[in-house]
Amino acid sequence: MAKKKKTTTKTASKTKKKNGIVSFFKSKQTHLVFGIFLALFGIFLLVSFLSFFNTWKADQSQLHLFSDRLAETKNLLGKIGANISHFFIYKGFGISAFIIPFLMFFSGLYILFNISFKAMRTAWFWGVVFMIWLSVAVGFFFPKKALLSGVIGFELNDYLIDFIGKIGIFLILLFTALAYVISKFKVTPESLKANLPKRITKNSKSVGIDDITDEGYIAETIPEKPLSELELKVTTKKADPVQKQEPKIVVKEEVKVTPNKLEVTPTVHEEVKIEVEKTFEEDHLVESLSNKLVDDFGEFDPTLELSEFKFPSLDLLKDYGNENITIDQEELEANKDKIVETLNNYKIGIANIKATIGPTVTLYEIVPEAGVRISKIKNLEDDIALSLAALGIRIVAPIPGKGTIGIEVPNKNSTIVSMKSVLSTQKFQTSKMELPLALGKTISNETFVIDLAKMPHLLMAGATGQGKSVGLNAVLTSLLYKKHPAEVKFVLVDPKKVELTLFNKIERHYLAKLPDSEDAIITDTTKVIHTLNSLCIEMDNRYDMLKDAYVRNIKEYNVKFKTRKLNPENGHAFLPYIVLVIDEFADLIMTAGKEVETPIARLAQLARAVGIHLIVATQRPSVNVITGIIKANFPVRVAFRVTSKIDSRTILDAQGADQLIGKGDMLISTGNEVTRLQCAFVDTPEVDRITDFIGSQRAYASAHLLPEYIGEESGTGIDIDMSDRDELFEDACHVIVNAQQGSASLLQRKLKLGYNRAGRIIDQLEAAGIVGKFEGSKARQVLVADILALEQLLKDEKGL
Ligand SMILES: Nc1ncnc2c1ncn2[C@@H]1O[C@H](COP(=O)(O)OP(=O)(O)OP(=O)(O)O)[C@@H](O)[C@H]1O
């Protein structure tokens, strides 16, 4: 412990030191002093270099006597000047070395006036390149005057001659110079061409002007017009062969005669080059640390730990043969006739009828004759269904937003909507949703993709064998195909014990579990209660983190974290979405009642902003299972076929789910509208292949660990020895009393403790009477009003 403390203080002092150094280099005064120094040093160099050319001969013999005070040099800047100049000019670059004092001087000015560092860097780069080029060039043209090219220029020439000869060097020099000019002045073959004919046209201009002056009046009215404009008129008159050859310059001229004067408005359509002025690049003095971190390390990539993770490919999914909807014209006609006949029996005339064929049902859209009341048709729903003698008829009167009446009639041969066919759609593949779910296809055969993050929770109901489990698998598969293990974690609750077992294989990739549990998939009711409470703690922790980061939801939080604006040392971390899937909710409610309902309701009410989403499926959508509070917090509900109208109302607040045909035929209510879908079908072997594929890849060390939840039983009857107190006990007292919130997670974050130790301290705090009793997932009550009272209490304790 002491060691840990020591290292923390050590790192603290280290960071302090580091901060001091950083602020020294960032201070304006440092910049000023350094800028002045560089500028003056530039002048110093220039003077010594200039002086060097007169004095080098005399000073040369003195160079080695640098330390001898009596040795005299002629350089204006003494021995140091003579030595530096000797180094840069004689041993270095010859006259090209003059570039260095200028670079120094301007660098000083750059720093003084806080001009961008980038500009300075570019200047140095090109300065040095030019210096080398020039010293080689001088060495080439004046091989006998080694002083002008310096040793470097001379030696480089000498070296290059052996390899490419004199002509080679000349060509290299020429090439590099041309390459520079071309790139600097953006020379293009077009601009070269364009420049060439200009000169030619210029010649023709002189001819033109003579012509015009011959005419006399033009010269008089527009004497100050530039030559080019005057000439233009002539070119329109004469067919100038030169101009014809050069189509690049298109010249048009309008001559307007006004009562008083003759106006010439020439329009020259020439390839005009635009020169973009460099805008002033401001340097920000307080460079934010996060920007620097992002510059240095790039954005934080949560997927880095499993960067080689491969998403499952679509090949793992099965093709189902009869996926193309076949239109049975006879069936269509027969159904149409039946509908028309039935409605006529009830004296409802039809103006128009249209059919849309979906995978399982066909929608007949009817426009009734004028004057027919829609409510009349709605009331006759059962009778019409009976007359059509088919299971699964649903009447939508009116179709929202259309004013027509829809009658959905099941197809004789239904088509399976394979998971592959929905996942391969562009709609899903290119979806930008946070948690996209490809649930199936609509009646118009359009893939239905919905964002779980926006829902924010999903309630699924349906009688046994109608497709709930397949629906859950479709949901999970959608997420597995779209989200990296770092981005989403599943908490799977499967009281039936068999439905979700396959997902065990991806435990260390995608599942989350309680720290002390062996299996990630939860099948036992007590563990479900613990897990739900643990999720509530996770939710509270996440809210605290969001609060600390001044953001409102997980998306903003993660963006901030990725851009390195949140320090992991302060307890921040990238937050994956957590999707809680409960396969059989009715069972849980029956066995655990309020203990399950309370945390579920709490999560459903609050967890959306922190990225915890619930998917709850139930066989029995009765009111004692889907209570009002749960229903209110699950705006998006899916109904597979249910057995009674009442069940349909309970789940959807509307009829219809009892009229479905089963086998994945479902209705989804998104709050304001109910859509009929054919759920995508994913079979167990397909899920098996996907989980195998993922499970065989490198995984995290363990499943994602949820916060530890200490059940009620361990929070009571605390009898703790005072001398056994944690050494951070007093610090913890202060944290808790200051925040007036008795939660272990607060201690964890503020004192950087593990959960167990924080939990122990909370127990000690309870024993000391500082916090109240355990209250489920809520924070404990703090019994000490303020720090003063706390100090008093601690003093009294010590006095005893
Ligand atoms: N989307 C679908 N497309 C085609 N057939 C389906 C679809 N969904 C389910 N089925 C068929 O219905 C059967 C039962 O589905 P499922 O196991 O999902 O029912 P369930 O509602 O979960 O039942 P239980 O509540 O008893 O577990 C499947 O084996 C399959 O044959």
TrEMBL record:
An annotated GO BP: cell division
Keyword Transmembrane helix annotated: yes
Keywords for the protein's UniProt record, in alphabetical order: ATP-binding, Cell cycle, Cell division, Cell membrane, Chromosome partition, DNA-binding, Membrane, Nucleotide-binding, Transmembrane, Transmembrane helix
Annotated binding of ATP, by residue: 462-469
Superkingdom as given in the UniProt entry: Bacteria
Domain FtsK: 445-649
GO cellular component, one term: plasma membrane
Keyword Transmembrane: yes
GO molecular function term, any single one: ATP binding
Listed InterPro entries: FtsK/SpoIIIE/SftA, FtsK_4TM, FtsK_alpha, FtsK_dom, Ftsk_gamma, P-loop_NTPase, WH-like_DNA-bd_sf, WH_DNA-bd_sf
Protein topology in the membrane: Multi-pass membrane protein
Compartment annotation: Cell membrane
Transmembrane segments: 32-53, 88-112, 124-143, 163-183
Family statement drawn from the similarity comment of this UniProt entry: Belongs to the FtsK/SpoIIIE/SftA family.
PANTHER family the record matches: DNA TRANSLOCASE FTSK, SPORULATION PROTEIN RELATED
Name this protein carries in UniProt: DNA translocase FtsK
Organism: Aureibaculum algae
Lineage start: Bacteria, Pseudomonadati, Bacteroidota, Flavobacteriia, Flavobacteriales
